[in-house]
Write a structure and sequence with these properties.
By secondary structure, the chain is an alpha+beta fold. Strands 2-1-3-4 form a four-stranded antiparallel beta sheet, covered by helices on one side. A hairpin with a 3-residue loop joins strand 3 and strand 4. The longest helix is centred in the middle third of the chain and has 15 residues. The two termini are 30 Å apart.
Length: 90
C-alpha cells in the first residue's frame, strides 16, 4: 500500500450519503443476489450487515458504492469483498 499527502482542493464535489450495491455470491450454485442500500446509512453499517448476512449463509460478497458521472452513466466502485468474477473457478 502506498500512502501520500494530498491537497484536498483537488476535488470538485463530494456527497455525504452514498448509494451502495451489495452482491452476495453463492459460489456452490453459481447464484448471485443483488441489493441496493439507500438512505442515510454509513458504510460501516453496510459492511457489518453484509458480513453477518453472508456468514450466516456461507456466501461471499462484494460491496460497491454506486456512482454516476457526467456522460459515463452509472457505475460501481468496489469498497470491500470479492475482487473480480467469483464464479471463475465454479
Amino acid at each position: 500500500m502506498d500512502i501520500r499527502d494530498i491537497d484536498p482542493r483537488d476535488t470538485t464535489w463530494e456527497q455525504d450519503h452514498a448509494r451502495y450495491r451489495v452482491y452476495f455470491w453463492e459460489v456452490a450454485t453459481v447464484t448471485a443476489y443483488e441489493y441496493e442500500v439507500l438512505g442515510e446509512v454509513d458504510v460501516d453499517e453496510v459492511l457489518t450487515w453484509t458480513s453477518r448476512y453472508a456468514a450466516e449463509r456461507g456466501w461471499a460478497y462484494t460491496v460497491y458504492a454506486a456512482v454516476t458521472t457526467d456522460g459515463d452513466g452509472p457505475g460501481l466502485i468496489r469498497l470491500a469483498g470479492v475482487l473480480g468474477d467469483p464464479f471463475t473457478d465454479a
